[in-house]
Amino acid sequence: GAGVSQSPRYKVAKRGQDVALRCDPISGHVSLFWYQQALGQGPEFLTYFQNEAQLDKSGLPSDRFFAERPEGSVSTLKIQRTQQEDSAVYLCASSWGLAGVETQYFGPGTRLLVL
Amino acid sequence: AQTVTQSQPEMSVQEAETVTLSCTYDTSESDYYLFWYKQPPSRQMILVIRQEAYKQQNATENRFSVNFQKAAKSFSLKISDSQLGDAAMYFCALILSGSARQLTFGSGTQLTVLP
């Protein structure tokens, strides 16, 4: 596709529900990133994939957060037993190279509201 | 760990005038890249400009330019001939070369362009 796409754009969940957020990176982009952006703040790193390998998950806030990219393209961020503090915008980004310093291109984000 | 600081939560500028957004950062590494991203209300993060730390020449992209002062760890963004479409949240970000591939963002500066 022309850009990074994410779905759904908005998600309302009741506390305790599981949610799955999808990211479609730019075709051919090797690297994929997930960030969490709280209201009025800058994005914070969650996890990074190079192809299907998850090379860094140091930013995942708890073991309720899980991400996968099984075929090295589409990625899913799953949050189990959602809590109110999980409410945020979840941004996905992709880049073409392996060096790690190529420009990251961002999707529109998924706004998650946990009630 | 690296940090990025944007000390101006809000800025405003008259249409056609020039405005400078400030950013300072801290890292013990010598090889890194700096970015300015723009996030309009639609929330899609868009790259504005990029600077390699090893380059002494300041990056320029049309009406956007940076003042990169490596010794002072300062990376300001100048927007010339401001347009209504420049109104957005602007984020300064840093990425280290090497194994760490996560962008570290500042807290953002909300820019308002007055007609």
Which key terms come to mind for this protein?
heterodimer; A: 115 residues; mainly beta; seven-stranded mixed sheet; four-stranded antiparallel sheet; B: 115 residues; six-stranded mixed sheet; globular
Strand and helix layout:
The complex is a heterodimer of chains A (115) and B (115).
Chain A: E1 5-7, E2 10-13, E3 19-24, E4 31-37, E5 44-50, E6 53-56, E7 65-68, E8 75-79, E9 88-95, E10 105-106, E11 110-114
Parallel strand pairs in A: 2-11
Antiparallel strand pairs in A: 1-3, 3-8, 4-5, 4-9, 5-6, 7-8, 9-10, 9-11
Chain B: E1 3-5, E2 10-14, E3 19-21, E4 24-26, E5 32-39, E6 46-52, E7 60-61, E8 64-69, E9 74-79, E10 88-96, E11 104-105, E12 109-114
Parallel strand pairs in B: 2-12
Antiparallel strand pairs in B: 1-4, 3-9, 5-6, 5-10, 7-8, 8-9, 10-11, 10-12
Mean pLDDT figure of chain B: 93
SS class of chain B: mainly beta
Low-confidence stretches of chain A: none
Number of alpha- plus pi-helical segments of chain B: 0
Annotation, overall tally of beta strands of chain A: 11
Shape of chain A: globular
Helix and strand element order of chain A? EEEEEEEEEEE
How far the N terminus sits from the C terminus of chain B, by CA atoms, comes to 41 Å
| Oligomer kind | heterodimer
Helicity range of the residues of chain B?
Answer: under 10%
Poorly predicted ranges of chain B: none
Q: Based on DSSP secondary structure assignment, what is the total number of beta strands of chain B?
A: 12
Quick one: biggest sheet of chain A? 7 strands, mixed
Structural class of chain A: mainly beta
Terminal Cα separation of chain A, in Å?
A: 33 Å
Count helical runs of chain A.
0
Instruction: Spell out the helices and strands of chain B N to C.
Output: EEEEEEEEEEEE
- Largest beta-sheet characterization of chain B: 6 strands, mixed
